[in-house]
C-alpha cells in the first residue's frame, strides 16, 4: 500500500517575503472573521523583530519558551489559555521560531478542535477532527518541521509526535533573512539535523525515487552550506535544504541516529539537533561515508561536540534509554531492514550509549 500524504497548501519563499505575512494571513482573518494567535519564540522578546509580527485587530501574541523542547503539558496549557481568553475561535495559529515553536503551533492547532489532552494523540493518525488553520514562519532551518506531518512532543509516557494529516501547515512563509541571525552553533546543529535526515533517508531501506530526489538535492545544498564558503545565498540554500530534507523523510524514514538520539532526549533532555550530532559521530559502522563527511563539517564549523553524556547514568536510566530507542521500530526497520533486531540488540545499543 502506498502512502497518500498531505502536503503544505501554500508556500511563499524569498528574502523579505515576511513583509507579505500581513496580507497573506489577513485573507484567513477575513475568511474566518476572527483574530490570529501568534506563538513566537521568546528569544525575540524585546527585539526589533518582535515589532514586525503583523498583529491586527485583537490578534494575540503569546511568547513561548523553548529552553525545553515541547511538552504535552505546555500544549495543553496553551490551548486552555487561548480558549479562555478569546471570545471566538481564532482564525488560526501562527508559529514563529525554530522546530520547537513550529511544532507547538501544529500541536495547538490540532488540540484547539480535538478533545482531551495532547498526550492522548501521540501516535499515528489519532486526531479525528480537522485542526484550526495554522501557518509557520521559520527563524531556524534544518528540522523540516515546516513541511512534515508530525509535531514532536514529550509526554508523561513517551516522546512521540502527533503524526497526522491535520498537523500539516496550511501556509509556510520561508524568508531566509529570518534565519540569518541565529547563533552559529545552533545554526550548525539544526543544519546537521537536516544533513542526518538526508543520510538516513538515502541509506534507508524505505527509499524510493520521491525521497531520493528530495534527499539528493538537500544533501547537495547541505554540502554547499557547511563545506563551502558562507555567502549571500547560504541562508536561501539552508532553508531549501531543510524543506527538501523534510520532503525526503516524508516518504521514507529517519534511522539509527534519530532512534538513539530519542533515547538521549528522553532521559537527559538533550536537544534534537545537538543530540543527533553527538550520536552521529559514533555511527561509522552504519553510515561510513556520511560520518566522514559530517566530521569535516564539524571541523569547518569549529564546533566541539559534547562528550561523556552517559558517564553517570544509572542502570535504570540505561534500561529506559534503550527501551525508548528500540521502541522506534519503523526507524530501525528503515535503517537495518525487517530483521533489524538481529543487528541492533540491547547490548549493542548499550555499548553505543556507553561511548557517548
Ligand atoms: P529550536 O526551535 O528548539 O530552537 C533552538 C534555540 O534556537 C532556541 O533557544 C531558540 O530560542 C533559538 N532560536 C531559534 N531561532 C533563532 C533565531 N533566528 N535567532 C536566535 N535564536 C534563535 O531548534 P530546532 O533545532 O529548530 O528545533 C528542534 C525541535 O524541533 C525539537 O523539539 C525537535 O523535536 C523538533 N523537530 C521536529 C521535526 C518535525 O518534523 N516536526 C523534525 C525534527 C525536529
Ligand atoms: Zn531530525
List the keywords.
356 residues; alpha/beta; Rossmann fold; Dehydroquinate synthase-like, alpha domain; 6-stranded parallel β-sheet; 3-stranded mixed β-sheet; 14 helices; binds nicotinamide-adenine-dinucleotide; binds zinc ion
Draw up the topology in text.
Blueprint: E1 10-13, H1 21-32, E2 36-41, H2 48-51, E3 60-64, H3 72-85, E4 92-97, H4 99-111, E5 123-124, E6 134-138, E7 152-154, E8 159-163, E9 171-174, H5 184-202, H6 209-227, H7 234-250, H8 256-268, H9 272-280, H10 288-301, H11 315-326, H12 329-336, H13 340-343, H14 346-355
Parallel strand pairs: 1-9, 2-3, 2-4, 4-6, 5-8, 6-9
Antiparallel strand pairs: 7-8
Helix pairs in contact: 3-4, 5-6, 5-7, 5-9, 5-10, 6-7, 8-9, 8-11, 11-14
Description of the structure:
There is one protein chain. With 356 residues, the protein is α/β, with parallel strands linked by helices. It folds into 2 domains: 10-179, Rossmann fold, CATH 3.40.50.1970; 184-355, Dehydroquinate synthase-like - alpha domain (Dehydroquinate synthase-like, alpha domain), CATH 1.20.1090. It has 14 helices and 9 strands. The chain has a 6-stranded parallel beta sheet with strand order 1-9-6-4-2-3. The radius of gyration is 20 Å and the shape is globular. The two termini are 39 Å apart. The model has no long low-confidence stretch (mean pLDDT 96). Zinc ion is lined by residues 143, 193, 197, 258, 272, 276.
Amino acid at each position: 500500500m502506498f502512502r497518500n500524504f498531505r502536503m503544505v497548501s501554500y508556500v511563499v519563499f524569498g528574502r523579505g517575503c515576511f513583509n507579505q505575512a500581513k496580507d497573506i494571513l489577513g485573507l484567513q482573518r477575513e475568511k474566518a472573521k476572527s483574530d490570529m494567535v501568534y506563538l513566537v519564540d521568546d528569544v525575540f522578546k524585546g527585539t526589533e523583530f518582535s515589532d514586525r509580527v503583523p498583529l491586527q485587530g485583537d490578534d494575540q501574541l503569546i511568547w513561548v519558551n523553548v529552553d525545553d523542547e515541547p511538552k504535552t503539558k505546555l500544549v495543553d496549557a496553551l490551548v486552555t489559555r487561548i480558549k479562555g481568553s478569546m471570545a471566538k475561535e481564532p482564525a488560526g495559529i501562527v508559529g514563529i521560531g525554530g522546530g520547537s515553536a513550529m511544532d507547538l503551533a501544529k500541536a495547538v492547532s490540532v488540540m484547539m478542535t480535538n478533545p482531551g489532552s495532547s498526550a492522548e494523540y501521540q501516535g499515528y493518525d489519532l486526531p479525528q477532527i480537522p485542526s484550526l488553520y495554522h501557518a509557520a514562519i521559520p527563524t531556524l532551518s534544518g528540522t523540516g518541521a515546516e513541511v512534515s506531518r508530525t509535531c514532536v512532543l514529550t509526554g508523561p509516557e513517551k516522546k512521540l509526535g502527533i503524526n497526522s494529516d491535520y498537523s500539516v501547515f496550511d501556509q509556510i512563509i520561508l524568508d531566509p533573512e529570518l534565519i540569518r541571525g541565529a547563533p552559529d552553533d545552533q545554526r550548525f546543529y539544526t543544519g546537521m539535523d537536516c544533513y542526518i535526515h538526508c543520510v538516513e533517508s538515502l541509506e534507508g531501506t524505505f527509499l524510493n525515487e520521491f525521497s531520493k530526489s528530495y534527499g539528493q538535492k538537500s544533501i547537495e545544498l547541505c554540502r554547499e552550506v557547511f563545506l563551502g564558503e558562507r555567502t549571500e545565498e547560504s541562508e536561501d540554500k539552508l532553508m531549501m535544504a531543510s524543506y527538501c530534507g523534510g520532503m525526503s523523510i516524508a516518504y521514507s524514514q529517519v534511522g539509527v541516529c534519530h532512534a538513539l538520539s530519542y533515547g538521549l532526549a528522553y532521559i537527559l533532555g538533550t536537544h534534537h539537533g545537538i543530540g543527533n550530532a553527538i550520536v552521529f559521530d559514533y555511527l561509522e559502522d552504519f553510515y561510513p561515508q556520511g560520518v566522514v563527511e559530517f566530521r569535516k563539517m564539524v571541523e569547518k564549523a569549529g564546533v566541539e561536540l559534547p562528550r561523556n553524556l552517559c558517564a553517570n547514568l544509572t542502570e535504570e536510566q540505561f534500561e529506559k534509554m534503550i527501551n525508548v530507542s528500540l521502541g522506534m521500530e519503523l526507524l530501525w526497520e528503515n535503517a537495518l531492514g525487517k530483521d533489524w533486531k538481529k543487528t541492533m540488540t540491547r547490548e549493542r545499543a548499550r555499548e553505543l550509549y556507553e561511548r557517548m
